[in-house]
Amino acid sequence: MTYIFQDWAANKGNLKGRLVMVLFRLARPASINKFFRILWLPYLAFYKVFVEWILGIELPHWTSVGSGLVLGHGQALVVNGCSVIGSNCFIRHSTTLGNIRKPDGSYSGSPIIGDNVEIGSNVCIIGEVRVGNNVRIGAGSVVVKDVPDNAVVVGNPARVVKFLEPVDATNKPVAPVQSIAAPGKEVSAVDA
């Protein structure tokens, strides 16, 4: 229940974001067990029709989402239900978090997004990708490889262009900037 209030506060001034997150949190109990799924069936039908079909946001009720998720502009958002989204993340419009269909017909794992991640518009995060904590992903990026903590990534495919100053849970700096890429020089991502 506290997640509802944290999401509400995080989406201040964003009525659509507030509405979607409240509806999402109210649908979550259906993920707990079969009894709740049956009890919540009419609500889940309403959630699917209203949030997905009318508002254009595919955020399945069983998706693991931390507190304080902000949905900037809240449209054309597609999240695979097996994705994991950490706390205090900001996801802009036209973003996809999905898996990949392999040549053998099976599917890859889904993205795992850390805490305090800001995702620009028109971003695709595809496959079994881990995005670290305190990461910024630039608009139009295609992320197909792991992203380390405190990184800024841009491009297709996404590349690390610099590292941010690490922060703690209260967003206060804990150490000086680790490194910054020289202009035109690519910094390779490290395994998370």
From TrEMBL:
UniProt keyword Acyltransferase present: yes
Gene3D superfamilies hit by this protein: Hexapeptide repeat proteins
Question: Which Pfam family name is an example for this entry?
Answer: Hexapep
This protein's superkingdom? Bacteria
GO MF terms listed in the record are: acyltransferase activity
- Keyword list, A-Z: Acyltransferase, Repeat, Transferase
InterPro entries associated with the record: Hexapep, Hexapep_transf_CS, LbH_SAT, Trimer_LpxA-like_sf
Is-annotated flag, keyword Ligase? Answer: no
Q: Which family does it belong to?
A: Belongs to the transferase hexapeptide repeat family.
The name this protein carries in UniProt is Putative colanic acid biosynthesis acetyltransferase WcaB
Q: What is the lineage of its organism?
A: Bacteria, Pseudomonadati, Bacteroidota, Cytophagia, Cytophagales
